[in-house]
Amino acid sequence: MEFQFQFDWQAAIDSIPFLLKGIPYTLLISFGGLLIGFVLGIIFGLLSINKKWFLRWPATAYIEIFRGTPILVQVLFIFYGLPDLIGGPIDPLTAGIAAIALNSGAYISEVVRGGVQSIDKGQTEAGLSLGLSRTQTFWSIIWPQAFRRMIPPLGNQAIVSIKDTSLFSVIGVGELVRQGQIYIANTFTAFEVYFVVAILYLAITLSLSFILRLVERRGLASV
Predict the structure, then answer these.
(1) Residues of the chain with pLDDT > 70: what percent?
(2) CA Rg, the chain, in Å?
(3) Which of 40, 197, 9 lies closest to 109, judged by CA?
(4) Model confidence over 206-218: pLDDT tens digits?
(5) Band of the pLDDT at 8, cuts 50, 70, 90?
(6) In this protein, which residues make up the domain named ABC transmembrane type-1 (predicted)?
(7) From CA 87, how far away is CA 171, in angstroms rounded?
(8) How many CB atoms lie within 10 A of CB 138?
(9) For the purposes of burial, counting CB atoms within 10 Å of the CB of 117, is it exposed (0-12), middle (13-18) or buried (19 or more)?
(10) Which residue, 34, 32, 29, is CA-closest to 92?
(11) Whose CB among 59, 71, 91, 120 lies 3.0–4.6 Å from 47's, allowing a Cys bridge?
């Protein structure tokens, strides 16, 4: 039996309006989670280099747990497991944002730790010699320099988190992949639809990469 496959461009084009409905959910989960994750990353990243063990150990435990377990397991635990603990259901969108926040927060913590520790200790001594307190020295001298060095890895994490949202179709979040699954169930055009889904993800990540390069260049130019 001879098998012939012909790409149905019309089916791919027809799927675009329906698939575009998933982009707001993809972006909301990604950037909502990343915003919270950035705050968590700063907090736990700084705690992980604190000299006090009772602050450093919990931060290290959080980082290792969420870096060492798959994000799919994390979102399934939040969506299906936590309701048993709290005695009520969790909205799929909330579960998705929470998973991105906790997962990205762990990775961003390491970015923050590495960025801060990469600054020469002489910078701290210089700030103290000018009469600044350690807190003033950190936020006025150390943090601005460290943050410039964090921009590339933070951008990479943002792109990873956007792609991670594709896993959340398993809990029914209406993001790009879920929209594609629904459309395929009615049209049986899996190849064409997933092709379009891939192109849409690529468009989002390439746009973000372009923006991040501009930010990085401006940051370097201001040094």
Answers:
(1) 96
(2) 22
(3) 40
(4) 999 999 888 888 7
(5) confident
(6) 23-212
(7) 18
(8) 18
(9) exposed
(10) 29
(11) 59
CA 190 to chain centre: 27
Cα 93 to its chain centre, rounded Å, is 15
What is the rounded (10 degree) CA torsion for 141, 143, 145, 147? -160
Residue 20 CB coordination number (10 Å): 13
**Domains (range + CATH), the chain:** 26-172 (1.10.3720.10)
Sequence-separated (6 or more) residues with CB below 8 Å from residue 117: 49
Task: Report the half-sphere exposure of 26 (CA within 13 A, side-chain side).
Answer: 28
12: its two tokens: 């791919």
Is residue 7 within 8 Å of residue 192, measured between CB atoms?
Answer: yes
Distance of alpha carbon 75 from alpha carbon 111, whole angstroms: 23
| Length of the chain, in residues | 223
